Amino acid sequence: MSEYSKEQIVIIGSGPAAWTGAIYAARANLSPVVIEGVGSRTMIPGGQLMFTTEVENYPGFPDGVTGPKMMSDFRAQALRFDTRVLTEDVMSVNFSGFPLTLSTNTGRVVESGTIIIATGANAQWIGLENEQRLAQSGGGVSACAVCDGALPHFRDRIIAIVGGGDSAMEDALYMAKFAKQVVVIHRRDELRASKIMQERAFEEDKIRFEWNKVVKDVLGEEVISAILLRDMLTGEESELEVEGLFVAIGHTPNTEFLGGQVDLKPNGFIKTPTPWRTETSVPGVFAAGDVMDDYYKQAVTAAGTGCMAALEAERWLAHGGSK
Length: 323
Description:
This protein is 24% helix and 25% strand. By secondary structure, it is α/β, with parallel strands linked by helices. The protein has two domains: 4-122 and 251-318, FAD/NAD(P)-binding domain (3-Layer(bba) Sandwich); 125-247, FAD/NAD(P)-binding domain. Strands 1, 2, 3, 4, 5, 6 and 17 form a seven-stranded mixed beta sheet that branches.
């Protein structure tokens, strides 16, 4: 592929939504190009599943599968149908007219009749070195309780949840079904979660709270053994023995490269104006996966929206780029 090309469909991203979209687009003879990204410290090609050691809730894998293996298989299936892949980052886009245009970090310019944005969202981490190491090695640290919480490692153990919003309460209530005890760590003396979520958490006997505390360090070599807490009021530090840590302080959708050319929700996720559709505010531009899903945030739902986006893009092109 030259430094300039003109395509029918370009898919930006490399998680379940992107590869599913590529499979459908390729089988429709649209010869898709997937721009999978170069990778960074917090996000690599393959998305958040690359940091997930065991996936047990994706249909078709009765014995479970690792996140990296799943993404490798998704990618291989897309390549089987002659999907082309660029390991580059999209730096900017121009959606002011047709064809749609994007530019990558290598200086490449790509024009396309339609684009699927499937760039995902970064889980927000505390930012501790050992937190990241144990998260990537399967050492009992995760940013997705629904994804990982039912694994044997976390059952009948003392588990910590960091956060004070609805996501943290949802994770705490979910983990209460498996853990011996769930300890919610929150930097303030009151929660940000909705009243109904607070009430549910307070009523659960297995959940207790450490107020005005922040995690200063994650301890453990192969697996987490404890967390070091600091009291925000007194500065006093203490260790809390835990066998699992779930960080639930939010996600940041990867939309900065769009430069405000696509309408976003107030929380930064891409807005899809029509319910159960993936079309964005820009004709010919569709969104799939976690970059537009601030509710489910699961691999299987991401794959589903990738399919939807590819079908919508195919129909868009079949009608000459007009509704």
